[in-house]
Amino acid sequence: MIYLDNAATTFPKPREVLERMIDLYAAKGVSPGRGGYDCAQEADELVSGVRQRLCQFFGGDDPHRVIFASNATDALNLVIQGAVKPGGHVVSSQLEHNSVLRPLHHLRERGLIDYDLVPFDGQGFIDPDDVARAIRPQTQLVVLTHASNVLGTIQPIEAIGALCREKGVPLVIDTAQSAGVIPINISDWGVSALAFTGHKSLLGPTGIGGLVLSRSFEVQPTRFGGTGIDSQELIHTPTYPHRLEAGTLNILGIIGLMAGLDYLAAHGMESILQRERALARRLWQGLAELKRVKLYGTDRLDRRLGVILANIEGMIPADVGAILDGDFGIATRVGLHCAPLVHQRLGTGRAGGVRFSVGPFNTESEIDQAVEAIKKIAEFRRTG
Amino acid sequence: MRSLAGRDVFFDSEGFLVDPSQWSEEMAEQLAREIGISFLEETHWRVIHFIRDYYLQNGRAPLHRELKKGSGMPLMEIEGLFPGGIKMGARLLAGLPNPRTCGM
To answer: Chain B neighbours among A 321-340 (CB < 8 Å)?
Structure first.
C-alpha cells in the first residue's frame, strides 16, 4: 500500500517508537504516581519528564501545565468547555475541524455562548484583521487551527497572537496537523493554550494528546475523579496538571509520545518538514499538469504542510478514492475531512475532495505513482 | 417515501434505500432508468449481485479489493459502468444503505 493519509494519522510509525513502547511499558507500565512502591514513582518520573519535554518543545512556561488527554479533540473539548462562561462569546474560523465546531455548536445550542466564525480567503488563509474585527467586549476566547487539515495552509498565528495579547483575549490553537512538523513557541507567539495530538507528526500512537497552557490562563475542570493525591477530599485536585486530568493516565501512549519526540530530535524536525514539502511540491506539480484535475488553496507550498486537496472533474471523490485504493493500492482520505465549512467555502459541497497527505516515510516513487494513477483515472473517465 | 415497483419504499435524502430488505430486481431496474441506464446488462447485474450478496452475507459492503476480485472488474470500469459511479450508482442500485462516513 502507498499510504498518503498521513494527515489522518502517520503510518507506519517508526520501528524504534514501537520497540521503545513495548520495552518500557513492559518494564514500567504501572499506574504512575499511585502506590508507594518504587516502580510507581519511576513511572511518575517518566510522565513528569515527558511533560517537561513537551513544555520545552512547544515553548510553554510551566511543565505542570502540560495536560494529557486522549487526542486533540479531547484537549480542545477540555479547554473550550473549561474556559468559556455563560454569556460569553468565542471567535473561531470557517477553517476549523469539527473538533472545534461541534463543541462550540453544543455550547451555543445550550444557550451558554455565542460565537462568530471568520472566513478564509481563496488561498486558504485567515486574515488577522478579520479576527480583530470579530472580537467583542464579551469575547472570552479565540480558537483557531494552526494548519488546515483540508488544505494544509499554515495560519498567521504569530500575528493573531499579538493582537489577542493586545486585546486581552486568550488564544487557543489546534495543532493537530502542525505539532511535530512546524516549530511552535506559544510563549513567543502569545498563545494561551495549545491542543496537540500524539499520533500524527509527533509519530506516537493513537490515544494520546494533550494541552499546553500558559501560566496566565486558567481552565476550569469539566471532569472529575481520582488523581492519586488529596484522596480524602471530595473536591477534585485544584492544582495543575491534576486539575484537568482524572483517572489513570495512558502511560503506554505517553511512552510512545516520548519515543516520538526522541525520533524527531534524532532526525531533525526541519529536515522532515523539508522532505515532506519536497514530496508535496512534486505531487502538486504533477497533478497541476493533468487535465480535468482541480487543486485547491495556495500554490505557495512553503506556506502549507504536505496536504493537497484535489478533485477530478465529473467524478465523485469517494469513487476516486475507491479506485485509488482498489486498483492502485493508494490510500487517501476522501469526503469532507470533518471540516464541512471548508468544503462549503471551496464549493466542494457534500462530496468534498480527495486529500493526499505525505508523511516522513513516503518516497518520490510513491508520489509519481499517485500522479500516474490520477492521470489514468482522469483519462479513463474521459475516454471510457 | 415513494411508490416504486409496486410497493411503498423509504429512501433517504441521497436516494438510498432505508431498508435494504425492500430491494427487488424490478426496483433496481426502475432506479437504473432514473439515473440514466435504460437497460441493465449482464455486467451491471454481475456487479449489483456481487455487492448485494456480499452485503447480505457479511453485513457490510465489500472492501475495494473484494469488489474488484468478486466482480472480476477493475473499480475504474465499475465506476464508468454506472452513471452515478460506484457509490451513487452501483451501491445505490444494489439497495445497500447509505454509508454514513463522509469518506465512503
So the answer is: 321-323, 325-327, 333-338
